[in-house]
Every structure is written in C-alpha cells, then in structure tokens.
C-alpha cells in the first residue's frame, strides 16, 4: 500500500482505493483494474460475472439471519477522468497515480486523483470483502466508461440484478442525500476549413492560456471559473483584424465533462506587428487578472516566439473561414443558462464548451449541455447546434442520457435520513445534483428500485486539483455500513 495511505481509516476501503491507483482506468481502459478486482473476488470466494457490455457484478449472500431483508445493489463507476498539468510527466495508461496527504485531504501529484468514483467503488468492494458487517443480500455493480458517455449504464440489461434498492456511491458532499440529477447531451460541430500559405514576412508565436482551475462541468459550472477556449477565442476575435493575425493551429480543452483549463494557438503576424502582439497579450493578461483574479489566481497568458524553422507553420487557415469559427465560439453560451425554480441554489441547465481542436483542414468543437429537465436539455442542445450551423459547421447531437427524477415517496430517503441523524446528530440535506449520475439510466431496466446517492467530500473533480477529505470518507463509510444493517425485511 502507498505509504501516504497506510494509516488511514477505514483501512480496507483505503487499501482498495490504493489498489485502484496502481492500475490504469481512464474511460475505455478499465480492463486491468477489473481483472485485479476479479482476482480479489476469487480469493474471497465471491460470485462475480461480466454482463454483455463489460460491467462487473459481484454478489455476496446475506449475513445469517438477514436473508429476508430487501436486496441492495451498491453501484459506482470504475473509470476516471485523466487530466494532468502541462508540466506533469504522466502516462495514465502505464503510470500509477502518486498520492499525497495535505491538511486532511488526499491529493494526487499533478494529475486527477480518481476519487471520482474510485472512493465509492472502493467502499462497495470493501463491504463485499469485509466478513464482519451485517447485511442482507448484496450486489455490487461496477460500471464502465461512465465519464466518456455512460456506456455501461446505458447498456445494463433487465433481469441481471436481483436487488430492490440502489445505493449509488458517486456524489461528492458528505452530509447530503441525493434523490435526482441532471441529464445531458453532446453537441459536436465540425468545420471544414481552407488552408493557404503563410503570408510573406510573417513571424510565428505560440499563444498559451494556461493555469485555470477547470473542474467538473456539472459540479463546478456555477463557480464562475474561466473557460480557456472562450478566453483565448475572445483574444483572437478582438485582435485578429488589427494585427493581421492568422491562425495555423488551435487546441483547447480535452474532455466533454471537464471545464477547459488550457488552450493553445499557433499564430503568425507580420513582422511589423510582433511588438503590438506582445503588448496586446500583456494587456489581455492584465484584463483577465482583473476579471478572474479572485477565482483564477494561477491564470497565465503568454506569447512565445517560434524560432525553430522546423516548428514554424507552413500554412494558416483562410481568414474568412476562421472568422466564422471565432464568431460561433463567441456566440456559443458557456456556463449556467437557468437556475432551478424548484430546488434552491441548484443549477437547472448549463453548457460546457469543452473542446476546440484543429486537425488539418478540420476543426471540431464539442459541447456538453446538461439540465434537470429532459425537454430543457433538448432545447438547449438545439440552440447550441443552431449557433454552429449558422456558421457553416456540420453538427451532430448525440449521447443523450436522461435525468433522474426525484421520488417523493422514497422509503430509503426516510430510512437513511433517520440513520444519518442517529449517527451524526443532524438531519442530512436532501438535494438534486446538476452532475449526471447513472441513476436515470440504471433505473430504466429496474423501475422498481428505490434509489439514493451519497458520498464523501470530493473537490475539484476532473482537474489536477482533485482531492478527497479523509474524515468525510470515514463518515461516508459509517453511513453505508449502518444503512446496510438497517435495511428492512421484504
């Protein structure tokens, strides 16, 4: 076990999480860690199987005398979001996550930690391995590819699981019980652009907007953080004409559900404008500090001359073509579009302008729209699509997944609120979450399930600042154990 995690409690949970950090598990690359989990199941004589899409299901019989209790399915996703700082050397397909403890929180070192949803899966697996916990019939559903499209949840078949209750272990605020979540949809816009030779007597620069906090496009979208794609596009749109600035390459953001932390553009300007470019970059950096300084203390915007002749671009995008891209990105909404009228301080609808990526003569923009209302989700998706279609892009809307509608008659909500109050002395908050949990999809083939989601305190998920609070993991574990003991008879 990693030395930084050896002393933490509950030890079995942290042991499982530490094991996860030693195996690659970006979305679509979960096989090695799933095989490791299956090996543990074999050692402990736990029944397990893969379903048709690749989700792992583990079963554990009831403790003697509790066979008549309602069956519980614990659930989490094994994949993680692979994000790293630009100056961090790390291969998510081969290198272990390097953990460290700072002021009561577990962090990674320059990368995402994978506490989302590794802590939840570790808790479920620890329950299955611990012989000293009282419980009725248990199943652990470990889904795949949640972060890249909820593939495992979308393809879950009916009649595979036997439980009556779903405990989703994938939220990120201790002391809160979640009974609903947002749905989402991907909007992908593809521009076909023309390239032409770099103008004579041009000099090349690498523009780099870095150091933003980024974060989870559901949980953090309302915090007013900068989006690197929007901000660099803002600079290009403002100064391209005056500086005769031409764009050779642009790459910003990485994942649909992560707020863009970095954006880079290779540009050329006439030699006589290079000093003006440097001044414009410096002034814009100061402007961003004034606008975002309180929330983006690490923000940096620089222009670095490209002096290596082999690295200098040979072609640039045709100015009129790229102007349409800049205008569309500027017009595309990013952030919260509506707050919920039914749940206090809760985002109803939002959009994340996640990715701007050029490849040859093609430029792609990817957005993820979310809403607590499926109809509002679809309307927002159409609005974003129209923005890019008007600019001449080919647009696809796909990957939609439903929200999870709250059940006001949930018996599990009553039970867990009572258990929580008896453990901690206060009634937990009942909330819906703007992030996309798998519950809406999982509930379709199992409409009988009574579903609750809960978890420990995780902050800055989907960014290298991700961390999980140690004491909240203990509280999360205590609530899970006590809930399983209190499950009523059928």
Please describe what this structure looks like.
The protein is of the alpha+beta class and 490 residues long. The protein folds into 2 domains: 3-182 and 403-486, Zn peptidases (Aminopeptidase, 3-Layer(aba) Sandwich), CATH 3.40.630.10; 185-401, Alpha-Beta Plaits (2-Layer Sandwich). 29% of the residues lie in helices and 28% in strands. The protein has 11 helices and 23 strands. The protein has helices spanning 11-21, 31-43, 115-129, 151-154, 228-243, 274-292, 319-331, 374-390, 411-424, 439-442, 470-486; strands at 47-50, 56-60, 72-77, 99-102, 105-108, 138-143, 165-168, 176-181, 183-192, 195-197, 202-210, 246-252, 263-270, 300-305, 315-317, 335-339, 347-359, 362-371, 394-401, 429-433, 450-453, 458-459, 467-469. Strands 9, 11, 12, 13, 14, 16, 17, 18 and 19 form a 9-stranded antiparallel sheet that branches. Strands 1-2-6-3-7-21 form a 6-stranded mixed sheet. Helix 5 (228-243) runs antiparallel to helix 6 and helix 9 crosses helix 11 (470-486).
Architecture blueprint of SSEs:
Layout: H1 11-21, H2 31-43, E1 47-50, E2 56-60, E3 72-77, E4 99-102, E5 105-108, H3 115-129, E6 138-143, H4 151-154, E7 165-168, E8 176-181, E9 183-192, E10 195-197, E11 202-210, H5 228-243, E12 246-252, E13 263-270, H6 274-292, E14 300-305, E15 315-317, H7 319-331, E16 335-339, E17 347-359, E18 362-371, H8 374-390, E19 394-401, H9 411-424, E20 429-433, H10 439-442, E21 450-453, E22 458-459, E23 467-469, H11 470-486
Parallel strand pairs: 3-6, 3-7, 7-21, 8-20
Antiparallel strand pairs: 1-2, 2-6, 4-5, 5-23, 9-18, 9-19, 10-15, 11-13, 11-14, 12-13, 12-17, 16-17, 17-18, 22-23
Helix pairs in contact: 1-3, 5-6, 5-7, 9-11
């Amino acid at each position: 076990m990693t030395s930084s995690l050896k002393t933490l409690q509950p030890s079995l949970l942290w042991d499982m999480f530490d094991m996860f950090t030693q195996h690659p598990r970006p979305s679509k690359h979960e096989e090695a860690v799933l095989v490791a989990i299956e090996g543990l199941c074999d050692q402990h004589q736990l029944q397990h199987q893969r379903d048709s899409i690749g989700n792992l299901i583990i079963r554990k019989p009831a403790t003697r005398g509790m066979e008549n209790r309602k069956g519980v399915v614990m659930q989490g996703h094994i994949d993680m979001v692979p994000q790293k700082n630009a100056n961090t050397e790390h291969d998510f397909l081969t290198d272990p996550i390097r953990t460290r403890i700072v002021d009561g929180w577990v962090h990674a070192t320059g990368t995402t930690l994978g506490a989302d949803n590794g802590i939840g899966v570790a808790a479920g697996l620890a329950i299955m391995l611990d012989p000293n916990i009282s419980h009725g019939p248990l199943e652990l559903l470990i889904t795949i590819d949640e972060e890249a499209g909820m593939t495992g949840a979308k393809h879950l078949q009916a009649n595979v699981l036997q439980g009556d209750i779903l405990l989703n272990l994938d939220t990120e605020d201790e002391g809160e019980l979640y009974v609903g979540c947002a749905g989402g949809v991907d909007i992908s816009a593809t521009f076909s652009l023309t390239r032409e030779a770099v103008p004579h007597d041009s000099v090349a620069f690498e523009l780099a907007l870095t150091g933003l906090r980024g974060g989870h496009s559901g949980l953090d979208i309302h915090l007013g953080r900068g989006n690197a794609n929007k901000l660099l596009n803002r600079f290009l749109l403002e100064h391209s004409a005056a500086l005769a600035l031409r764009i050779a390459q642009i790459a910003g953001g990485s994942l649909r559900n992560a707020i863009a932390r970095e954006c880079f553009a290779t540009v050329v300007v006439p030699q006589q404008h290079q000093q003006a470019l440097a001044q414009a970059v410096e002034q814009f950096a100061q402007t961003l500090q004034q606008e975002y300084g309180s929330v983006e203390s690490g923000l940096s915007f620089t222009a670095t001359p490209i002096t290596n002749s082999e690295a200098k671009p040979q072609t640039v995008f045709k100015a009129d073509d790229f102007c349409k891209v800049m205008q569309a990105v500027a017009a595309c909404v990013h952030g919260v579009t509506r707050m919920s009228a039914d749940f206090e301080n809760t985002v109803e609808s939002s959009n994340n302008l996640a990715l701007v990526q050029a490849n040859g003569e093609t430029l792609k923009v990817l957005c993820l729209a979310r809403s607590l209302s499926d109809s509002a989700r679809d309307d927002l998706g159409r609005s974003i699509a129209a923005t890019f279609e008007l600019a001449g892009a080919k647009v696809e809307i796909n990957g939609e997944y439903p929200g999870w509608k709250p059940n006001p008659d949930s018996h599990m909500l009553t039970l867990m609120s009572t258990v929580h109050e008896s453990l901690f002395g206060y009634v937990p908050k009942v909330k819906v979450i703007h992030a996309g949990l798998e519950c809406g999809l999982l509930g379709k083939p199992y409409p009988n399930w009574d579903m609750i989601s809960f978890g420990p305190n995780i902050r800055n998920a989907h960014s290298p600042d991700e961390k999980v609070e140690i004491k909240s993991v203990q509280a999360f574990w205590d609530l899970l154990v006590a809930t399983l003991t209190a499950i009523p008879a059928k």
